[in-house]
Amino acid sequence: MSAPGAVLAQHPTSGRGGTGLLPQLLLALVCGGYAAGSALGWGSRQLALFMGDFGLAVAAFIAAVSCYFYARTRESRFRPAWLLFSLSSLMAAGGNAVWGWYEVVLRRPVPAPSLADFFFLCFGPPAIIGLLVLAKRPVTRAGWVCLVLDAWLIAGSLLTLSWSLALAHTTELKGTSTAHAALSLAYPLLDIALVSMVLALHFRRSSANRAAINTAIAALAMTVLCDALFTSPLLRDNYHSGQILDAGWFAGSLLLAYAPWGVSRASQRAPHGLPQGAPPQPPGRSGPQARALRAGSSRPIAGSLAALTPYLAAAVCVLGILYNVMDGHTLDRVVLTTGCTVVLALVVRQGIMLVDNISLTQELAQKENHFRSLVQGSSDVIMIAAPTGILRYVSPAASGVYGRDAEELVGSELASIIHPADLGAVVHEVRRFLAASPQEEPTTRIECRFKSGTGDWLNVESTVNRHQGGLIFNSRDVTERVRLQAQLQHNAEHDPLTELPNRALFTKRVRQALAGRRTTDLGTAVLFIDLDGFKAVNDRLGHQAGDELLVQAARRLQDSVRVGDTAARLGGDEFAALILGDGTRDRAAREYQVREIADRLRLTLSQPYTVDGNDVRVAASIGVAFAEPGITPTDLMRNADLAMYRAKAAGKDRVELYAPQMQAEVVRRTELATRLRTALHDGEFALLHQPVVDLTTGRVAAVAAQARWRSAQGILFTPAEFLRVADDSDRTAELGRWLLQEAVEQAAERGRAGHAVPVIVRLTARRLLDRSLPLGSVEALLTRHGLPSGALVIEMADSDPRVSYDDLEQRLTALRRLGVRIALDGFGSGHAAINALRRLPVDVLKLDRGLVEGVVESPRLYKITSGLLRIATDLGMESVADGVDLPEQVQALRAMGCTHGLGMAFSGPLDEYRLRRALVRGDYPVPGGTGGALPVLAGGPPGGPLPVRHPNSPATDSFTHPPLRSHTETSIPPT
Fold first, then answer.
1. Is the pTM of this model over 0.70?
2. Percent of the chain, pLDDT > 70?
């Protein structure tokens, strides 16, 4: 037997709770005690009379009270039936009480007729109506007619038999009054009616609250049986109260009293149809299902008896007629009339049933054809598995879906077509489904792989229903859907270019590595990798070549990591690797091992690539972060990212391990960048000016504008500090515009105050070409503030290789037409300065600070600087040395022919107040004496000297500088 068959073939074990036996045992003991007392005569005639009359009255009264209170406290559609049973029992109690009044209290025979007869006759009608309420109501007129005919068939047959045996003799007794004869006939006729209803309703009782109905029918049946025995002439002539016949009436009353309450307790003990204390049902069949199967097995017997009822009634009627004929009596009219009506009722009933059966047969055939067409025409495969797991039916759609004939599958085991890897899950789901209640879970879904006719495995989704202990599978092929889902899942978790896991899958793998048994494994590490120089490859060779380089780099990365580790592409030229630990707790050992892996990856990724026949080189900057106790995947990946950026900032093509101070630095820079965004609008920027001094005369030839940021916390930041975090190009452009506007505006104000001196504004080549600084804006700025020609010098800084020299030349030429002079910053720092000198219209050369700092100590730098100054002299350009901080540097530069300098040897950056005081003095002491050369930056228009108005300072000026003194940067006065 297959595994699913073993599950389906399991049978439940029956069990009853012990709590329901106590009322039943008590009821049996009381009835048994009463029967024993009746059989023994109760010990005395007086006690026998009392128990035979008032004992029966008490039992009937208990039944009346029980049914009444149950009907009042329970909401049910059978409530009228229990009220009628209560009334019927009350009538029986009244009749027995009257009987006891005569026999026990008055000590004389009960007269006939009497009030007791009235009560006893009133017992039948409520009971009959109550049984009709309990019956399952027919839904058609034919059903009602058949119910009436069935009742008459039973009643007529019983009337025929009892009339032949006793009732006819009762009517022929002489000396009997009409009232006495009618009373003698009334009891058996009512009993016949009750028996007819009991027998008819036994096969038509309602399925709801069936146990209570069965108990009530049994109680009434016992009462009717005792009434029938009492009406028999053999027993009635010798009957007296307290005999064994009273035990039947007594038991019938108590059984009717117990009927509703005993079933109510059972239902409260066992919700969902399971008895309290019953053992758990096996998965094969649940409790309700097992009861349904047991009920199904009893239906054929009950249905056969119900079908045979009319024929049995007719047989009883024929026996009554035959008894009269064979006994030699003349055929009684009552017997003949009743027999004829019974036969007529049987014929009518059979005719109705025949017509009904023909109609049902036709309807059943239509439905069967309809459902057969649906099943055979359905694209889904419908299979029925027997309780043993054997397939009993397979729809023809199997040939198109599975590639196997339906006849081939019929008779095979269900397990034989299920993939072995899926069989366990299927058995588990079937076991769980069969253990659940059919009302709560009528169906379930199972997805597994079925074997096709070609030997391939198809993904099949099945809807499963219960079917006579087995299962019905409604299956469909979902292989394409599963394949599409798998492809979509793969696409969602992998990079489309390199086929490596993407950021989502990599994060998932990191989370898995930090969970479970690896929670305490400190050797797990994450590597973030960035390809240095990849953007230049994209710009030089194109994006297609860049994609090919990324594919090759991904292949190298995938081949270099260990088995079990994960390589991923996070986006752009950023990759990552998850290195799983080996359980070691030696921090130095694990750091050495992971660093060795990272270095190997760096060397591998830095090897030359062949792209479109060209050898391309890129480097790799790698950041490493180790897992720590309690760290989250997000924090671990962020730490590796910070370490990678530290590696790029430290010179690229290197490996950096994460350190906690990296995060603190990032937080500081982030806070600084956030405050910088609002610093301009909040007025936190101030403009300082550093004098540019003629190295021959010591006069101030110009001033260099420099921005300073004093934050709300009182911290003063230099441009080198705050421009490093101003990665927002819009914010940097806004700062450049502010610097230019403030410098021009303050220069114009100084000129109007008699302190005219050219102002130098430092701008990058990229900003010079930025649309945020159009040509017309500079001209409008100079015109608006009345700044004369030659009063503005733009110092072009760090020529960007991405900037077009053609565009830059046009821009600078246009600015020179406005009277703006151009200075080249950083001269001597690289080949870019030489190219700029060769192609751009430059008026002033500014020596790089790196040359000036070592010009005294290094003979090599002395010669280089001297050569550069000769180039400036030969080209007819002024020269400015940046970073002149020592007197020795002043003397060396002046000896080489350098004309101007700025630095701490003369003055640091000054606020507006101290700047004007310096301009009033007009010059600074120069080491080595003075010469007669004109101030270089005080020449005329571009290509010639710029006129500079030097104010006449008084002989005694309070703002004096001691010789050879370095002037530090002054603070900004409080506002």
1. no
2. 71
